[in-house]
UniProtKB/TrEMBL annotation:
PROSITE patterns: GMC_OXRED_1, TAT. It comes from the Bacteria. Its EC number is 1.1.3.6, 5.3.3.1. GO terms for biological process: cholesterol metabolic process. Its cofactor is FAD. Keywords: Cholesterol metabolism, FAD, Flavoprotein, Isomerase, Lipid metabolism, Oxidoreductase, Steroid metabolism, Sterol metabolism. Pathway: Steroid metabolism; cholesterol degradation. This is Cholesterol oxidase. One of its GO terms (molecular function) is steroid Delta-isomerase activity. SUPFAM superfamilies: FAD-linked reductases, C-terminal domain, FAD/NAD(P)-binding domain. InterPro entries: Cholesterol_Oxidase, FAD-bd, FAD/NAD-bd_sf, GMC_OxRdtase_N, GMC_OxRtase_C, TAT_signal.
Length: 552
């Protein structure tokens, strides 16, 4: 190794020694390769994986590689700053024994869930029967994190939620923006940062002529017919999926991904997750490195020399800690997602590591009013055996009834005669995270009963459609005789609210050099699916931080 390379690596706090230690966990997985788990580190992984050294000093450390983290990494790197990202999940660039990186939706295995021995599928039942099954415990892609009143689904790995989400890339209506982020300049967002985010994410619209006849969107056309017959606006929604690839899937000329129903456990081909957009660009600068299977456990002011001491657990694919590391960073960006960032900060404040944090930390958390339901259609309204996992449209009753319902797929591979919906509603309730000294954990005081408001708002759409169509709700998807999926959210938001727990640009009150860049800044509701707003807000905040704090 040349001196230049050595120096380069040291300055980023990364070495090949670290890399060898880091891949041990991946190689160890060969023993369970028959279960679909990655058998060995690929050449691609070997080229990009790197693990931070114990004792390293870095100019910038970013916790998490989701939307907020990826934007931060790219823009800082483009401004000439060396960046190290720390991600508790896996790299997701190595195929398993079935030749695929991600497990199929209908055949979950260890890759599917974060450290569970049994799946916890959002739809727990089908035709009344429970569908969860045993799986090997593994650092899989989807975390179903359980709090007392709600299960919060989140992506784990390089790309965060972009690995598991539906790719619906929705910019809120301009007239609703001030209810989402009241302290942010609306013109600046809609003229500069939303366009920048949409471009960075690769957001495009489905070709509606193709959509009108595609087999895989029969379910969506049935959804449109029912919405329009009841007088509701049916709106097409942009996505980050590669539509030309999906056309080829439908035509049968390429391996199928969305058309094969892949979504919750990762998408093997057509979806432009952050790995293919922001993170690819960030890596291409040569200034960004990522430590995977590394979980930040503490951040506190460094005893000497300025900056922050960051404690990190390196874990293996069983979730066991194999090394603990302490590094120093001049600046730390929290981008661990609404739940990850808020849990960390609440604990660090309560345990005295960051005592000066604002008393607003932990407050203002919401679930974007998520509630699910299915409707049972008549036999003449078949929704199709083949359903693309990528939603294309929604029913907009936000102004009149407080609900925006995504016409969602139910990709079971059989005809179900069901229409399925994920509604985003104007649920007014906000929960708080607090530190529980007895358990050492951070609790959330969300109450399932609060979802009744969301159910009422969703009913403003579906009661009317059912009446018009002479149809009923499905009662077999979330338990026995249970209509509403009111036990979960895909869209955690808030906990470290902008201009309350931070200043108006995500700088944490009380500590210079600590920033929050993710969904925890948005106070509980985005009026639509949230990742475009998370991305645009991160673009806005990092722009300011690069000029004002880094002088670049
Ligand atoms: P996020 O993407 O969650 O990234 C945080 C990252 O930090 C993760 O990779 C974590 O593993 C990592 N992390 C956490 N704690 C630590 C730690 N202590 N140390 C190191 N790393 C850590 O955050 N949104 C839409 O707009 N459209 C959709 O169609 C859509 N569909 C969804 C479907 C599903 C099933 C799910 C789960 C979510 C969906 N979402 C959708 C929500 C969207 O993915 C989510 O709002 C964003 O991913 C949140 O972005 P953040 O940057 O806040």
């Amino acid at each position: 190794m040349s001196d230049a390379t050595q120096n380069d690596e040291r300055s980023q706090g990364v070495s090949r020694r670290g890399f060898v230690a880091g891949t041990g966990a991946v190689l160890g997985a060969a023993a369970i390769g028959g279960l679909g788990l990655p058998a060995q580190a690929s050449a691609a992984e070997a080229a990009t994986a790197a693990s931070i050294d114990n004792g390293a000093r870095v100019p910038v450390l970013i916790i998490g590689t989701g939307y907020g983290g990826s934007v931060t990494a790219l823009r800082l790197a483009q401004a000439g700053v060396d960046v190290h990202m720390v991600e508790m999940g896996m790299a997701w660039d190595t195929p398993g024994s079935d030749g695929k990186i991600f497990a199929h939706t209908t055949k979950p295995d260890g890759r599917s869930f974060w450290l569970r021995t049994k799946t916890k599928q959002p739809l727990s039942n089908f035709l009344g029967f429970p569908i969860d099954q045993d799986i090997p415990k593994y650092t899989g892609i989807l975390d179903a994190e359980e709090f007392s009143g709600i299960t919060v689904y989140q992506g784990r790995g390089v790309g965060g939620g972009s690995l598991v989400n539906g790719g619906m890339a929705v910019t809120p209506k301009r007239e609703n923006f001030s209810s989402v982020l009241p302290s942010v300049d609306v013109d600046e967002m809609y003229n500069t940062y939303y366009p920048r985010a949409n471009a960075g994410l690769g957001v495009t619209n489905v070709d509606q002529r193709w959509w009108e006849s595609a087999n895989c969107y029969q379910y969506a056309r049935v959804g449109r017919k029912h919405a329009e017959r009841s007088g509701f606006p049916f709106v097409f929604v942009p996505n980050v999926y590669d539509w030309e690839y999906m056309k080829a899937e439908e035509a049968g000329t390429v391996p199928k991904s969305a058309v094969a129903g892949e979504i919750l456990y990762g998408n093997n081909y057509g979806k432009k997750s952050l790995q293919k957009t922001y993170i690819a660009q960030a890596k291409a600068t040569g200034k960004v490195t990522i430590s995977t299977l590394h979980k930040v456990t503490s951040v506190s002011p460094a005893a000497s020399g300025g900056g922050y001491t960051v404690a990190i657990d390196q874990i293996n694919t069983s979730g066991d800690t194999v090394a603990t590391k302490t590094v120093t960073a001049d600046r730390v960006f929290f981008a661990a997602g609404s739940v990850g960032t808020t849990k960390l900060l609440v604990r660090l404040k309560a345990t005295g590591a960051l005592p000066n944090l604002s008393s607003e930390v932990g407050k203002g958390w919401g679930e974007n009013g998520n509630v699910m339901c299915g409707r049972a259609n008549h036999m003449w309204d078949a929704t199709g055996k083949v359903q693309s996992s990528i939603p294309t449209a929604g029913i907009d009753n936000w102004a009149a009834g407080g609900a925006f319902a995504e016409v969602a797929p139910l990709p079971t591979g059989i005809e179900t005669y069901a229409s399925f919906y994920l509604s985003i509603t104007k649920n007014p309730h906000r929960a708080e995270f607090t530190y529980n000294a007895a358990t050492g954990k951070v609790d959330l005081n969300w109450q399932t009963a609060w979802k009744q408001d969301s159910i009422n708002m969703a009913k403003s759409i579906f009661d009317k459609i059912n009446k018009k169509e002479g149809t009923i709700y499905r009662t077999d998807l979330f338990g026995t005789y249970k209509i509403w999926g009111d036990h979960l959210t895909y869209h955690p938001l808030g906990g470290v609210v902008l201009n309350k727990a931070t200043d108006n640009y995500g700088r944490l009150n009380g500590y210079q050099g600590l920033y929050v860049m993710d969904g925890s800044l948005i106070p509980g509701n985005a009026t639509v699916n949230p990742f475009v707003t998370i991305t645009a807000l991160a673009e806005r905040n990092i722009d300011k931080i690069i000029t004002a704090d880094l002088g670049r």
